Structure to design on (470 residues):
């Protein structure tokens, strides 16, 4: 076990104001692997003051120079990609292959995209007799989740730094080691002191202090809808900007003309990735009633390949959940699904591994739209199959939750899938297995959030508009 000390504030590691620590647990074996300081309001204040002091100089730095810093940061991430992957696996429990490809690979791509945007974005334009300037908002307070610990930091720090903002990051207490590694990479890349700051700590303490701080101009939060509401209310009372990426209950709509076998196979893989701990996971699979029984059998076969095991074992395709609380939460939803009449096709409550916070990959059939497992975000390896009668019925079910973050549509003709997707109340839809695009805006409708991340739309969240008339 390693006892980490200090917060990254003002370009250096400074001693924490308090003495309390947070234990970091490996979810695969339930052993404490490290401790980090539990930051206080005093630590947050120091970080915000450092960010405020650095803001004028960073905002005045030409965008092409900011782009060069971001490129150096991306290169630093690439040089320590294996270390990033190993760190994520140790504290999150993701299989090592997934950590390398997704948890390290995606944020490297995203960092590169914002380096390019910083150099090419039109921060100024002429409209009639006005010059319109897009200027950095100021100091950003970023509160990030544990499920994609590096990606979510880069998805906020990347556009903030490209825009000319300075930032204070409060990472999730379950995965602070990846955040500390990122701070090391920031330092290695040579970013000016105070431009990026890191305070580890608990949400109700450090997170709340950051959201409430009077010198934070924008709060960017990714996490649960319940906490997002509190942060939104806090920001609203202070009349400060807020960006919220919250929960999801995404629908995977398989139209009758689709390649059913491929759609089910990819759909199961989507839900099982990261042990189901993905806000945009397609956790509701909607299948026409005439194809429903076949889809259930296809799902049963597909999910059998997701064998839970040691994340360091190349044969393991499913790691543990992040902690005991999350495991209990997911098991509670499985119990609720059975109690409400859904049928277990695979998985269930039986522990699939002798140690660790594992939940068996679970598939439910005979799920109806009003069931709890069809309405609430489970955040675990649990898939619900729902049947529909026709396209209007499918659309009603797809749009029939409080969320609207992501989704998928499958059809024989791309145009048919696109036509259906246009009517879905959700922020992002994959057509026939469309690939991840780091330049595409990501964010939700309804209770899935406010604002967008990634690409030019994500950059715009960190800019404010000024017009000069002459």
């Amino acid at each position: 076990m390693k006892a980490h000390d200090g917060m990254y504030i003002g370009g250096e590691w400074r001693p924490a104001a308090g003495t309390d620590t947070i234990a970091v647990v490996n979810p695969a074996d339930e052993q404490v692997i490290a401790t980090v300081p539990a930051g206080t309001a005093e630590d947050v204040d120091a970080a915000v003051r450092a960010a405020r002091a650095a803001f004028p100089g960073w905002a005045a730095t030409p965008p092409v120079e900011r782009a060069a810093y971001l490129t150096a940061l991306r290169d630093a991430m690439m040089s320590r990609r294996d270390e990033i992957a190993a760190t994520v696996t140790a504290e999150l429990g993701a299989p090592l292959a997934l950590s390398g490809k997704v948890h390290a690979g995606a944020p490297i791509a995203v960092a590169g995209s914002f380096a390019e945007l910083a150099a090419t974005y039109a921060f100024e334009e002429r409209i009639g007799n006005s010059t319109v300037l897009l200027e950095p908002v100021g100091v950003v307070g970023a509160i990030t989740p544990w499920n994609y610990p590096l990606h979510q930091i880069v998805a906020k720090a990347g556009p903030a730094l490209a825009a000319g903002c300075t930032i204070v990051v409060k990472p999730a207490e379950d995965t602070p080691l990846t955040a500390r590694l990122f701070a090391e990479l920031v330092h290695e890349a040579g970013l000016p002191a105070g431009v990026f700051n890191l305070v580890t700590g608990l949400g109700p303490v450090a997170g709340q202090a950051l959201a409430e701080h009077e010198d934070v101009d924008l709060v960017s939060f990714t996490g649960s809808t319940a906490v997002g509401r509190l942060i939104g209310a806090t920001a609203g009372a202070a009349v400060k900007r807020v960006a919220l990426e919250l929960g999801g209950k995404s629908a995977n709509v398989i139209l009758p003309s689709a390649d059913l076998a491929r759609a089910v196979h990819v759909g199961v893989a989507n839900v099982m990735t990261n042990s189901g701990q993905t806000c945009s996971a397609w956790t509701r699979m909607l299948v026409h009633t005439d194809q429903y029984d076949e889809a259930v059998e296809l799902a049963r076969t597909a999910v059998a390949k997701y064998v839970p095991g040691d994340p360091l074992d190349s044969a393991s395709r499913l790691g543990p959940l992040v902690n005991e609380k999350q495991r209990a939460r997911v098991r509670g939803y499985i119990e609720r699904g059975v109690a409400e009449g859904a049928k277990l096709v695979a998985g269930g409550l039986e522990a699939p591994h002798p140690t660790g916070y594992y939940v068996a990959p679970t598939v439910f059939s005979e799920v109806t739209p009003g069931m709890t497992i069809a309405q609430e975000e489970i955040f675990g390896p649990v898939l619900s199959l729902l049947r529909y009668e026709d396209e209007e019925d499918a659309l009603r079910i797809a749009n029939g939750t409080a969320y609207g973050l992501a989704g998928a549509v499958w059809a024989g003709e791309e145009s048919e899938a696109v036509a259906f997707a246009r009517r879905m109340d959700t922020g992002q839809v994959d057509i026939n297995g469309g690939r991840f695009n780091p330049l595409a805006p990501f964010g939700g409708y309804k209770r899935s959030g406010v604002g967008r991340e990634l690409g030019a739309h994500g950059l715009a969240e960190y800019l404010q508009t000024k017009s000069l008339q002459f």
In short: The longest strand covers residues 31-37. The radius of gyration is 22 Å. DSSP finds 15 helices and 23 strands in the chain.
